[in-house]
Write a structure and sequence with these properties.
nine-stranded antiparallel beta sheet, single chain, 18 strands, 26% strand, alpha+beta, 31% helix, five-stranded parallel beta sheet, Dna Ligase, domain 1, D-amino Acid Aminotransferase, Chain A, domain 1
Length: 381
């Protein structure tokens, strides 16, 4: 076990790295962040910020020699960087799990081969695959680029099979997954923390509402029955075990006609888990610190119902922030800003959590705040 006083490395310096850094520093650890952005939100708070590329060998060597263990805040860290670091210190989660989730093809194939249900899909790597994919997947469908797609980016809706070739060209003729569009009852997600000894602890299931492909609202606990909840928890812990995962893993699901389908897995804390900063006994970021350090998982129990609302750069008027007084007037609302220098449309700038004795009360208050912040923006324009 790595105890307070040890040094932890973080590959990536965005908001997830920032919240990990806060948790680790509060627990008595030093944190070294590697991120090429000089204004890295995590780098601002770290013990040391290496402003370098993820493939920069001197920076990786320094990280490996200085840190007792290294983790990541996003899945697109180059595999060779993780493999290099693993020769010098503990890397959690391991390179295998991270690199598998970098590519939708490998991720979907892993899920299928291990018996986890997904929406019907087909793999497209070259023009010869187009006809077979069109026969295999019923339209309407979604063509998703295999690598570097997030928050709805790198996706193209397909209304009929005749559109497939043009859509693939629009996505640069890159390897893709063609996925059948399913009728959604709801979207849900769950976090599972898994230690180096295989012990797993699941957080409450979150019910997620997206807008323009970006998470807008998370409602916890999700409004699902016990049977479905248990199915979600079994699936998430099964996926973590199949990956031999160490760390915090997020699993996103579709519920379609009552059936549970795995949508995506993320080898890190997740936007839909930000409610844990205020509403659970152990936050997802403390949990990540514990896993990296070989400590047993903390208690993930929910203390009260909570609703999380994302704050995107669209709310900023130019670079002028919203009127936070509207939010602070609510004593049960908790604001978290990420320290980003520039607000842009669609950019995640922060979030807030609303805690209440009942889920209905939390949701009502969260939506009122959301509307008030949006009204402030409209009046200013």
């Amino acid at each position: 076990m790595l105890l307070p006083g040890s040094t932890l490395g973080m590959l990536g310096g965005g908001q997830l790295g920032r919240m990990f850094t806060i948790a680790a520093r509060n627990m008595g650890y030093e944190v070294v962040v590697l991120d090429p952005d000089p204004d890295s939100p995590a780098g601002m708070l770290a013990s040391d910020h290496l402003c370098a590329d993820y493939l920069d060998i001197p920076a990786l060597q320094y990280l490996g020699e200085t840190c007792d263990a290294v983790t990541t805040e996003f899945e697109n860290v180059p595999a060779e960087s993780l493999e290099y670091l693993a020769r010098h210190c503990e890397v959690r989660p391991g390179a295998h799990a991270v690199t598998l989730t970098q590519d939708r093809i490998s991720e979907k194939t892993f899920l299928h081969d291990n018996g986890f249900a997904t929406a019907p899909f087909a793999v497209i790597r070259d023009p010869a695959d187009l006809d077979a994919a069109a026969r295999q997947v019923t339209t309407p469908a979604i063509l998703k680029i295999a690598r570097f797609g997030y928050d709805g980016k790198g996706q193209y809706p397909i209304a009929s099979s005749e559109e497939l070739a043009d859509a693939w060209q629009e996505l640069g003729n890159n390897p893709c997954v063609l996925e059948q569009r399913v009728t959604l009852d709801m979207e849900i997600s769950v976090l599972v923390a898994r230690g180096s000894n295989g012990e797993s602890r699941c957080y409450p299931v979150a019910e997620n509402i997206h807008r323009h492909g970006i998470l807008d609202v998370s409602v916890v606990p999700a409004r699902i029955d016990t049977v479905l909840e248990q199915q979600v928890l079994r699936s998430a812990t099964g996926i973590a075990a199949a990956l031999d995962y160490v760390g915090v893993l997020a699993v996103e699901f579709f519920v379609s006609h009552g059936d549970l389908l795995v949508n995506e897995i993320a080898p890190r804390p997740h936007n839909s888990g930000h409610y844990t900063l205020d509403a659970t006994l152990t936050s997802q970021f403390e949990q990540q610190v514990r896993a990296v350090c070989g400590l047993p998982p903390g208690d993930p129990r929910l203390l009260c119902p909570v609703v999380m609302i994302n704050l995107l750069g669209d709310l900023w008027q130019g670079q002028t922030p919203p009127d936070w007084g509207k939010l602070f007037a609510r004593p049960n609302a908790k604001l978290h800003l990420y320290g980003k220098r520039e607000a842009r449309a669609g950019r995640k700038m922060g979030h807030y959590n609303v805690l209440a004795p009942t889920l209905d009360e939390a949701l009502h208050t969260a939506q009122e705040i959301q509307q008030q912040l949006a009204d402030t923006e409209s009046r200013d324009t």
